[in-house]
Recover the amino acids of this structure.
């Protein structure tokens, strides 16, 4: 049986301050959202952490806009990855505290990840394009 390149979790990278905030959020929702909490904490733990000025532009960080393909249905999506209070699915802003949001953080353009959806079904998400978050001048 062949394994897809997404079957193993790809290397991910995070900004140090974002990793701390995300870990705190994940621990804060442990009882209410146990699956997302576990997934996020696992991702933060395995991520290589960097200062904000050391991450590549094609890395999904908080407030980055990402285009990705869901191999299960063949559709492409575009969204901005945000903190829970900023989420608005109709406005294209997806919370880090969703299964998809947790799966996207730290990936780069061209990477794929096998990731569970809300129903626990494994889906392959492939990153097509990343637009970095706007940074203050």
């Amino acid at each position: 049986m062949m394994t897809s390149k997404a079957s193993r979790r790809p290397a991910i990278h995070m900004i140090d301050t974002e990793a701390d905030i995300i870990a705190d959020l994940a621990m804060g929702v442990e009882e209410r959202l146990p699956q997302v909490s576990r997934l996020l904490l696992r991702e933060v733990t395995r991520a290589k952490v960097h200062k904000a000025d050391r991450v590549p532009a094609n890395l999904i960080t908080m407030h980055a806009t990402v285009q990705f393909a869901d191999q299960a249905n063949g559709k492409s999506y575009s969204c901005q990855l945000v903190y829970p209070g900023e989420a608005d699915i109709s406005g294209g802003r997806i919370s880090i505290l969703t299964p998809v949001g947790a799966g996207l953080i730290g990936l780069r353009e061209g990477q794929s990840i096998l990731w569970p959806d809300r129903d626990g079904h494994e889906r392959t998400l492939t990153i097509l394009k990343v637009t970095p978050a706007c940074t203050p001048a």
